Amino acid sequence: SMASLVRLQNEIERIKEEYFTRNRIAEENRQRENEAAILIQSWFRGCQVRAYLSHLHRKATIIQKIWRGFTARAHFRQMVKAAYFIMKMNFYHEMSVRIQQRWRGYCVRKYSHNYYARKRYMEGLARKNKQIRRDLEEFSEFQRRERERMAMEREEQEKNVQAQRMHFLLSTKQCPGVFNSPFRPGPDEMELRLRRTKPLPPRNIPRDRASLLGNTSPSSPSFLGVPRAFGAKPLPPIPSKKPQGPFRGPAEVWAQRQRGLEPSLRVQTSISDLEQAQDQLRSGEWRNHTMETMFQPFSKAHQNRSYERMLHTSSSFQPVPYGTKHFREEHQENLQGKQPFKTVFTTCHVFDKFGRLYSNAGKIV
Amino acid sequence: MSQRQVLQVFEQYQKSRAQFVQTIAELATRPQNIETLQNAGVMSLLRPLLLDVVPTIQQTTALALGRLANYNDDLAVAVVKGDILPQLVYSLTEQNRFYKKAAAFVLRAVAKHSPALAQAVVDCGALDALVISLEEFDPGVKEAAAWALGYIARHNAHLSQAVVDAGAVPLLVLCIQEPEVALKRIAASALSDIAKHSPELAQTVVDTGAIAHLAQMILNPDAKLKRQVFSALSQISKHSVDLAEMVVEAEIFPAVLACLRDPDEYVRKNVTTLMREITKHTPELSLMIVNAGGVAAVIDYLGDSRGNVRLPGIMMLGYVAAHSENLAMAVIVSKGVPQLAICLSEEPEEHIKAATAWAFGQIGRHTPEHARAVSTANVLPKLLALYMDTDSSEDLQVKTAQGFIIQCIVFLVSSPLTFSPPLQVLPHDSKARRLFVTSGGLKKVQEIKADPGSALQEYINSINNCYPEEIVRYYSPGYSETLLARVEKYQPV
C-alpha cells in the first residue's frame, strides 16, 4: 500500500543509521556473539548429540538388556537342565552305591566269607572231632579187651594142656595129690583143673612094619589098655607054648578079625534093585522129556495133525448145577438100558435100608 | 684096602666138611665170634666149599657166608672181592630152594652196607636172577629175593631205577597179595624203598596198581606189616599232588584213623607221617583230612606219645594250619594249641621244639583272632625264652623268632575287623595290650637285645610305642638297679 511506502521512506534515514549502528554493534559483538553462538551451538549440538547418544545408549541398553536376558535365560535353562540332570545322576549314583553296598555285602557274606557258615562249619567240626575221638576211644578199648581176652584164652588153653599132660598128679581118695595138700583149706586151682580136664586120649603110634609081628600089635586091645609112656614100643610077647593043632598065629587071626566086610556083587545088590533101576530110568525119561511129540522122521506126522480146539471155545464154563444143586440125573433117556452099579460085597443087614434107599445094589447077594 | 674102607675115607671127609660148615654157621650167629673167625681167615676156607658136591654143604656155606657178611662191611667187601657173587648169582637160577634162600640172603647181606657194595651186587647181574626167583612158588625164596631187592633199592635213585628196570615191581606187587604175612611185609618194605627216591619211581610203583593192594592191608592185624604199608604209602604220596590224590582216592580215610590207636608205636608214627605227606601239598587235601576228623585224632596221638615220634604229628598240624586261615582255625577249634604247648614244654629235643615253634607261627600268623588264641595258651613267653636261650641252635632261634614276632605283631593289631600292616599300627584294643603285659610278654620283649636297624629292632620299637614310657622303663631290665642307684644318690633335705 501507499501508506506503508510513505512510512518507509520517512524512516529510511533512521533505518540506515540504525542499520549502521546495528552493524557496528553487531561487528563489535560479532566475535563475542560468534563465540557465544558457537558455544551455544556447540553446546546445543553437544546436547543434541548427547541426547542422541543417550537415546542410542538407552536403546542399545534396552536391546542388550533384552538380548542378555534372552541368552541368560537360555543359558539358565541349560544350567537348570544340567543341574537337574546332575542331581538325578547323583541320586542314581547314591542309590546304586547303596544297592552295590548291599549286594557286595550279601555276596561276600554268602560266598566269600560267610561268617555263619564258617561258624556252623567250626561247630560241625567240633562235633565231628568229638565223635571221632569217642569212636577211637571205643575202638581202642575194644581192641584192648580183645587182646586181653585172647591172652587170657591162650593162658587158659596152655593151663588146660598142662593139666592134661600132668593128669597123673590128680589126687585119689587114698593119696592126696601135690596140689591138694591136706594142710590147705581147699584144693588148689590146678587140682580143680586136673579134675575138670579129660586125660589125653591114647595116640596111634605110626605102625612100623618091622615091629608088627609080635603077639601084640599097636592097635590090639591089650596094647591100648595098658598105659604107656609116649613113644614106647609094645613089650615083647610072653613066650608061651604054641597050642597044638591047625591054629593060625594070633597076629593072623587078629588081622582076619580086623578085616572088613567085602561082600560080593550079588550080596551087595538089594532085592528091589531092578525095580529101583526101572524107576530111575522112568523118572529120568519123565524128567528129561521136554517134547511130548516124538520125533518121527519121514512120517508127515506134523502135517496130519488134527486141529485141537482151544479150551476156551470148546466147553462152556458156566457152572453146572449137577453135583451141587441136584444130584439126580436129568437126562433119564441116557440111562435107559444101563445096568446099575454092582458092588463087590453085599451090604450088611445093619445097613439094609441104607443100601436100598439110594440104589438097587442091596438086592444082589 | 677094600672098597668099603676107601669109601669110608670119603664119607669121613664129607662128614667133617659138613660139621665144619655147620659149626661156622652157628658161630656166625653170635657177634663176638665173628672177629675171631675173620682173623682165622674163614672167607678163604668157605669159598671152595661153595662149589662142593654135596648140596647141603653148599647151602650151609652160603648161610654162613651170609651171616658173616651181615655183620660188618669189611667182610662184605671180602665177599665181593673173593669173586663169590657171580657163583651165587649163577646158582640162584639153578639150584633148589634152600640154596636160593641162602644165596639171596648173602646178596642181601652184602648189599645192605653201602651203595658201592650194592652196585657191585648189581654189576654181577644179580638183579635178573633175583627177579626170576621172585616168580618161584616157595614163599621163603620169594621173601629172600624181595628182601635183597629192597636192600639194593634202598641206597639211591640210580640203584632203585636199576631194580625197576629189571622188572621187579609187578612181581613185588604180586608178592604183596600172597597169603604169607612175612612175605607181604618184605614186599611192602621193598616197594617203600623203591618209591622213596623220586616221583618217577613212585609213579612206576603206582602204575602197577600197588596202592589198591597196600590199602587193602591197612586193617591187617599184624603190626609190622602195617608199619611197612604205611611207610610205603607215605613214600609214594610225598612226591607230588597227583600221587597224594591217588593215595587218598584209595579210600584209606577214615580207616587209617583207627590205626592211630594201634598198640605199636611205629605204626602210629607211620600213620602220622602219611597224613603229614598228604596234607602238605594242597589246601583241598588238608580240608579233606580235617573233615574226616584227622586233626583231632592226631592231637590225641600227640597227647599219648612221647619223644621223637611226635615230630610228624607236629609238622602235620603246622602244614594244615599253613594253608589257610580256615584250616588254622580248625586246628585251634580241635584244641591243638594247648597240646602243642604241652609238647613245647615237655620235649627236650631241639628239633622238636623248633618244629613246634614253626607250627605255632603257622597257626597264629593269619589274623589277630588266631594270634589271640595262640597267646591264651601262654606260649609267647616260652617262645621268647627259647629265642633268648644261648644254648639253642640257629635253626631253633630263627624259627622261634619268626613264630614269636609274627605272633606279637599280629596280636597287637587292633580289633578283629581290621588288619593293617604292623609298622603303621595304632592299637585300639586295650584288652590285648593288658593281656600282653600281664602275661609277661612286654618284659620279655624288653630283654631282647637286637641289632639296631634290624627288622627285629623295628618291631620292638613298634611294640614299645604302644605303651606309655614309664611302663616301658619299668619293664626294662635293670630297672631295680636304677631305682636303687637313685635312692643312694638322693640326699634328704
TrEMBL record, chain A:
Under Gene3D superfamilies, the record lists: 1.20.5.190
| Alphabetic keyword roster | Repeat
| Region forming the signal peptide | none
Residue ranges with Polar residues bias? 213-222
Q: Keyword Repeat on this protein? A: yes
**Region described as Disordered:** 198-223
Keyword NAD set for record: no
Instruction: Supply the name of the protein.
Output: Spermatogenesis associated 17
**Protein source organism:** Oncorhynchus mykiss (Rainbow trout)
Automatic annotation (TrEMBL), chain B:
Q: Which domain of life is it from?
A: Eukaryota
In the record, what terms sit under GO molecular function?
Answer: microtubule binding
From the Swiss-Prot or TrEMBL record, state where the protein is found.
Cell projection, Cilium, Flagellum; Cytoplasm, Cytoskeleton, Cilium axoneme
- The species this protein belongs to is Oncorhynchus mykiss
User: InterPro entries per the record?
Assistant: ARM-like, ARM-type_fold, Armadillo
Function of the protein: Important for structural integrity of the central apparatus in the sperm tail and for flagellar motility.
What is the protein's given name? Sperm-associated antigen 6
Alphabetical UniProt keywords: Cell projection, Cilium, Cilium biogenesis/degradation, Cytoplasm, Cytoskeleton, Flagellum, Microtubule, Repeat
**Residues of the signal peptide:** none
Q: Which GO terms describe its cellular component?
A: acrosomal vesicle; axoneme; extracellular region; microtubule; sperm principal piece
Q: Assembly and interactions? A: Interacts with SPAG16 and SPAG17.
- One Pfam short name: Arm
Q: Give the UniProt record's GO annotations in the biological process aspect.
A: epithelial cilium movement involved in extracellular fluid movement; filopodium assembly; neuron projection extension; sperm axoneme assembly
